Each structure stands twice: as C-alpha cells, then as structure tokens.
C-alpha cells in the first residue's frame, strides 16, 4: 500500500521568516522567571513527545531543565531568551531546523481561533515570489530548458499551476536543468510534483520515506500517477544545488539522485532533513519543532546534517556553466546526428574565445588584411583586426575579429540579434600555407549552420 507523505512544515518555516522581518516590537519585553520556566518546560516536554530520536530529545530536555534550574534563562528579553535557548539546543545537537524565535505574528496566528484570524499583508508573499518559479529559458540549439526555481516550494493551487506551466514549456527539450541552488525549502509535495513529470503517467516511484518517534507510523512518499501536460521520461535531467538548497528542495534533489533520474551539479546542500511544524510557547515565542525524519526508500539514511552531495562538484565554478558544458560534451560523445555534433563543437569552441585575448592578431593573421569579394575588407586599427562591410551609399559596418582556434575566427557582434559569436571565418590555405580564400559560417537561432560563398582576396 502506498501511503501519502506530505512534508508541509517547511512552508511554515519560510512564512515565519517573512513575518519575522516586519513584526518585531520596538520595545523589548523582559520575560518573567515564571514565564521562562513555563516556556522551557513546555519545549522540553514537546521535544520528548515528538522528536524522532528519543536519545537526542532526552539530552535536549536535560540541558534545558538544568539551565533553567541554575537561572540561565532569567532576566532576558523575549529575543534574548529565544536566542539563548536555540544556542543551548544546537550546542547539544546541531539540528538546523530546531529553532526558538520571537515572532509576534506567528504566535498570534497559532493562538487565535481560525475564525478570528485577520489577513496579513504578507499573505501576498506567494504572488510576489511568483509562486516560487522565476523563469524558464529554452535553448533550441542544444534542446535545453533551464528552469529557475528559487522557491520556496509553495503548496497552493497557483504554485502548482505555475509549476505545470514551467514544465510544459520545457516538455519538448531533450535536456532539463532545474536550478534550486537558492531554494530554502517549502512543501514536499512540490518536489514530488516536479519529479512526476519524468516518469510515464501511472508509473509512480517510491520517492522518500518519513518516520516518527514511533516507527509504526512510518509514511511513504510517492510520485504522482498524473500531472497535467506531457511527461518527459527520456529527458536528461540536471539539478543545480548548493549551500542555499534546503529542506524540501533538498528532498527533491536527494530523491531524484537516489532514483538515478537526475545528475546533481554544484555544491553540498544545507543538510536540513527533518520535517517539523511551529508550536506556540509563550510571550510571543514560537519553536519550529522537528517531528519526522525524512530518508530514502527502504532506508534509515537521509541528508540530515550531511547535506545532499552532488555527483559533479563545481567548487567556485558556476554550476550552470558547468552543466551546459556537460550537455555539450554529451552531445559530442553520444549524438548520432553529425550536424548536432558540429553545433556542439561550435559551442565548445566558443567557450575558449575569452582565453585567446593575448593572441597578437596582426602578427598571426596580418596576411588577411586587404579587400575581398562581396564588399568585404579586413583592416587593422588600434590593435584589432576589423571585419568591414563596405557597400556604396551606406555607412561602413565594422566588427572586431578574434581567434576561436587556429585559422578559425569569430566576427564579434555580427548578427548579434541571433546571439553572440554566431558568425565565423574559416581560413583556407594552400599547401604552402598561403591564404587562398575565406569561408564564412553562421549559426542560426534554430540550430543550423549555414555556409556563405567563399570570399577571395582581390
């Protein structure tokens, strides 16, 4: 039997973070000794009740009650008390989810009957964040879709509609890049929703498993049997991760990695793998209380504390650039279409242009200077070789020529409306190395390479 597992609590964590920025009282309130004792006692009991690791929750309780007994929490403001308790908990066991904070709005939300709650201006935060999805870019030349999902992973209808729209835009690309490097988490449902697009409808996959303190209540999380739009079972999937990838977004990366359905590129993630929820304490203090450990299928191992480690670690290099390079290398190695391989090689060569800035163009290619057929001249001015189009009655168009690789030059800026570096000159030489003609090739936006008639020196 498939039990549905919903990691909902991370969304609450993000909402609280948003509230926290605008709801701090200007007047710090000192917490009475009686109230601080009640706060500490309630927190200790709650951790023993729900924290998924009994031996750790027992340590938490011992530390809290000991510090309370010796007066460590007396005479502190609400903010100071929250910070002190959090620090003591993390010194005992570092759980990046477990945190006490002063948050007046969240406290009121948790302690006010539902029918008495007022709409807060921050309720519009999902729309302002575009429901977690920033942009989709399609590169038709390499058949690559780049989906930027800075998050958080929201669980609203609008968020799933935005996710479906993004996935449908990407549906006909061979390569899918999903960028969650700056996604702090949210609802686990969104990760499952995205993962479902990479399997045929009805072919659900065991995605993640969650367990409580009482292991009899283990919950299984599966991908969905149906999501709207085209599914991409054959697409190659790359997920960009980093230190800013946390919580439910880590779960998405971890599950896709364990399913061997995606290649992870970037840096190790935050290591926040325990689901939880907010609990009101007292005096405007709330605690995000972890209650469920999230792990891989049929396993007790997750990413809590360690993070999700990508297959391709890029260090200081940009993970997106590295992934685009991986895609090109894959095209060169595995694409059966020779035209596609030529395009891939073109783009690989493009990446080397910036490293050729020290080439002395006049010394190496000075023999090209002169007039050519089709109203083209090549001149040298102020250290640059220039490609000039000279047509009667029109202003001269000039473009700097740079080396791509020996005897292959790029006319920078020519046809820039298509893209950068899309026009090249190939030098044809005779057996003695003398230039006999120039061939110009152009890479179109549709991913084809066109060849213009040869240009001969006049």
Q: Can you describe this structure?
A:
With 458 residues, this protein is of the alpha+beta class. The chain folds into three domains: 24-102, no CATH class; 124-279 and 289-334, 2-enoyl-CoA Hydratase, Chain A, domain 1 (Alpha-Beta Complex), CATH 3.90.226.10; 358-451, Lipocalin. The protein is 31% helix and 23% strand. It has helices at residues 9-20, 33-50, 54-69, 78-92, 104-111, 125-128, 157-170, 188-196, 248-258, 319-334, 338-350, 361-365, and strands at 99-102, 135-139, 144-148, 175-179, 206-211, 219-222, 236-241, 263-266, 274-280, 285-295, 312-313, 370-372, 376-381, 384-389, 397-405, 408-411, 423-429, 435-443, 449-451. The strands form three sheets. It has an eight-stranded antiparallel β-sheet with strand order 12-13-14-15-16-17-18-19. Strands 2-3-4-7-8-11 form a six-stranded mixed β-sheet, with helices on both faces. Strands 1, 5, 6, 9 and 10 form a five-stranded antiparallel β-sheet that branches. The longest helix is centred in the N-terminal third of the chain and has 18 residues, at 33-50. The radius of gyration is 30 Å and the shape is elongated. Mean pLDDT is 90; it is low at 1-26.
